[in-house]
Amino acid sequence: MLTWAEARAACHAAGAAVPPVTETVPLGLADGRTLAEPLVTLTDLPAFPTSSVDGWAGRGAQPWRVVGRVLAGDDPGPLDEDGTCVEIATGASVPGGVTAIVRIEESSTGPDGVRGEARAMRDWRDVGEEAARGEELLSAGTPVTPGVIGLAASCGYHALAVRRPLRAELLVFGDELLTEGLPGAGRVRDALGPQLPAWLARYGCEVAPVEPPVKDTLEAHIAAIEAALTRADLVCTTGGTMHGPVDHLHPALAALGAEYVVNTAKVRPGFPMLLARLPGGKFLGGLPGNPQSAVVALVSLVAPLLAGLTGRRADLPRVTLGSDIPGRGDYTHLALVRLDADGLAHALPHAGSSMLRGLARAVGFAVIPPGAHGTAGTVVELAPLPLYPGELA
């Protein structure tokens, strides 16, 4: 049995080994994708000397005689004569020959011209001050955010080469599940069919609508998985990861010729979970049937797999514990936490493997390593929930 850290690493490596599929999309459609190529600026930034203020751009000693005006978008000629200036707007191109810019609010004008004291820090940006043409600004594998889109536009791009979105499908196992109405008489509401597609979508996947629960027979499991694999890069299933009388996932995977990337990991909650590679290079994530355990499996195995498939890193952020969190012996303990106003992590109640009340308030899971006890003030890794679209870390 792999440790939790080993299982995450194996899933990321499995995804990273798959050759990427890329496409070029307009900037307006790139949000949430992943850069397939480095972002290299196509021009100097800025491309011309640019005024940072509204004021007077002059040459030589004052007073300056006003000889013109330069607005944003103009392409001015140089100032050829000492003692002259132009009125200049923020963002406008600074004429050649200018030796100083005086802010409009720090200047005065009179019969003899413009006077004012220029600041020690020049009020214009030089060519290439932010970046030189051909400079790599962002590496391949960088998530595309609105900020990345704005940077790309400033560099001269109208489209970006990005990884193709991954297609995911969810199969729900369990004859005991209800898809509507109140639980009772031995049957429970399916709480994973409604929520897991939303988590997968926040990881950046295109998710197919969920079908009714698959019947608890081996033949139905094999048929459902085969059909889903024709449409999806990743199939996630809920339930059936044990070896009970109606747990058909392992026999179905054997019949389909799958190989395990991870066949359970030493983590609580979330035991048992699996990730399998199917012939043809597609993947199946086997999530437990208990709701919180299924989400633990999602952040433990599926999130690093998706990071690998999209060329992203799978590093985890760190948080400081605001209260004690017990360990789970030889197992990694993933403890649901919220953050207080100071950014400290506190364990949430109602965090049993079958419960969802704590999950509804959580930012993620504090990672308490095997053999350890989380004490207040300790810095630990956080396995975050994808609270924002496209969030993989």
Element layout with pairings:
Elements: E1 2-3, H1 4-16, E2 22-26, E3 39-40, E4 50-51, E5 55-59, E6 65-70, E7 84-88, E8 100-103, E9 107-110, E10 113-116, E11 124-125, E12 136-138, H2 146-155, E13 159-163, E14 167-172, E15 177-178, E16 188-189, H3 192-202, E17 206-207, H4 218-229, E18 234-238, H5 249-255, E19 259-263, E20 265-268, E21 274-277, E22 283-287, H6 291-309, E23 318-320, E24 332-339, E25 345-347, E26 364-368, E27 379-384
Parallel strand pairs: 1-20, 6-7, 14-17, 14-18, 15-16, 18-22, 20-24
Antiparallel strand pairs: 2-13, 3-12, 4-11, 5-7, 5-8, 9-10, 19-21, 21-22, 23-27, 24-25, 24-26, 26-27
Helix pairs in contact: 1-6, 4-5
Features:
alpha/beta; Molybdenum Cofactor Biosythetic Enzyme, Chain A; Molybdopterin biosynthesis moea protein, domain 2; Molybdopterin biosynthesis moeA protein, domain 3; 4 domains; 6 helices; 18% helix
